[in-house]
Task: structure prediction
Amino acid sequence: MKRSLSDLGVEYLDLYLIHFPIALKYVDPDTRYPPEWIHDPSSAEPRMEEDNVSMRETWQAMEQLVKEGLVRNIGFCNVGVGHLRDCLTYCSVKPTVLQVELHPYNTQEKLLRFCRDKGIAVTGFSNLGAGSYVELGMATQHDSCLEEQVVKDIANKHGRTPAQIVLRWGV
Result:
């Protein structure tokens, strides 16, 4: 954490998030910094390697960063109600933010309602739909909600782009 703060030229972070609910094996910063997703990119079969670390242990380490003044707010990305509900049973610092994929094809209504009820702010990623997954080979441009005729019609009616209409939907 201290190296990250130094690299950023700050004394603390306003927000620090657990990116996803999978613990990856530690990579020493002297070996590779930042560690990236792949444990050993030079191996015969480069892949992510999981570690046996619980979400509770990870969350408690995040809480310690708050107690040390290195981080002001902590939260999650890419988790559902089950992970959040579990965290709320043991946390001493409540999650401030949840970041999840959020667009007209993935509205996450129950998750949003849970977060609203618990006072957890929600931020969305991939707000224009599956476009961010195209380069990963996990979607095509046709999976984008920007291609929906109703979105195009609304955009034309209001003199806006389809992206502006979808972003306004998100707001």
